[in-house]
UniProtKB/TrEMBL annotation:
<feature type="binding site">
    <location>
        <position position="20"/>
    </location>
    <ligand>
        <name>substrate</name>
    </ligand>
</feature>
<dbReference type="InterPro" id="IPR024694">
    <property type="entry name" value="PurE_prokaryotes"/>
</dbReference>
<feature type="binding site">
    <location>
        <position position="23"/>
    </location>
    <ligand>
        <name>substrate</name>
    </ligand>
</feature>
<comment type="function">
    <text>Catalyzes the conversion of N5-carboxyaminoimidazole ribonucleotide (N5-CAIR) to 4-carboxy-5-aminoimidazole ribonucleotide (CAIR).</text>
</comment>
<keyword id="KW-0658">Purine biosynthesis</keyword>
<feature type="domain" description="PurE">
    <location>
        <begin position="12"/>
        <end position="163"/>
    </location>
</feature>
<comment type="similarity">
    <text>Belongs to the AIR carboxylase family. Class I subfamily.</text>
</comment>
<protein>
    <recommendedName>
        <fullName>N5-carboxyaminoimidazole ribonucleotide mutase</fullName>
        <ecNumber>5.4.99.18</ecNumber>
    </recommendedName>
</protein>
<dbReference type="GO" id="GO:0034023">
    <property type="term" value="F:5-(carboxyamino)imidazole ribonucleotide mutase activity"/>
</dbReference>
<dbReference type="Pfam" id="PF00731">
    <property type="entry name" value="AIRC"/>
</dbReference>
<keyword id="KW-0413">Isomerase</keyword>
<feature type="binding site">
    <location>
        <position position="50"/>
    </location>
    <ligand>
        <name>substrate</name>
    </ligand>
</feature>
<dbReference type="InterPro" id="IPR033747">
    <property type="entry name" value="PurE_ClassI"/>
</dbReference>
<dbReference type="InterPro" id="IPR000031">
    <property type="entry name" value="PurE_dom"/>
</dbReference>
<dbReference type="GO" id="GO:0006189">
    <property type="term" value="P:'de novo' IMP biosynthetic process"/>
</dbReference>
<comment type="pathway">
    <text>Purine metabolism; IMP biosynthesis via de novo pathway; 5-amino-1-(5-phospho-D-ribosyl)imidazole-4-carboxylate from 5-amino-1-(5-phospho-D-ribosyl)imidazole (N5-CAIR route): step 2/2.</text>
</comment>
Amino acid sequence: MTAPPDPSSDRPLVGVIMGSQSDWSTLCHAWEVLGTLGVPAERRIVSAHRTPQRLVEYATQAKERGLRVIIAGAGGAAHLPGMVAAMTTVPVLGVPVESRALSGLDSLLSIVQMPGGVPVGTLAIGKAGAINAALLAAAILAPDLPEVEAALVAWREAQTRAVAEIPLDEA
Ligand code: RP5
């Protein structure tokens, strides 16, 4: 199987950020989908508590740098998406990373329970959430980017084709 195209771009529209290197094994699924859909993106480790200054710079410069969506993944006390959302009007999609201690329920509640006023669009825990964050980011961009709209439609069609009508016996 061939690897999906790398979405890395010097003019990214989507920023994929995560609190730790350990989150990459989850966020890489968002990265792959962005590559498949041809969405220009960048990826960064931005920790709310270990690199707070990097967080402030990333969030406050996001809009002027041309980012249209930020996908932010974190685990445990997952304050990264909410902190970023507090400092930019760029839409933030939060991906709760599956934690060792509480299987990601802590991450989910930390991200989803934003007080009214500072929204974070929160996805499912783990790989499914990362994939859906990328699909949602593409859908947000699609009205302005016909090639992304076409890629999104093709992705859905391929998904539909992959579902067999009759279940096979399992060994
Ligand atoms: C959070 O703490 C990160 O988002 C990560 O999910 C979690 C654990 O980080 P490491 O201890 O693996 O760096 O900040």
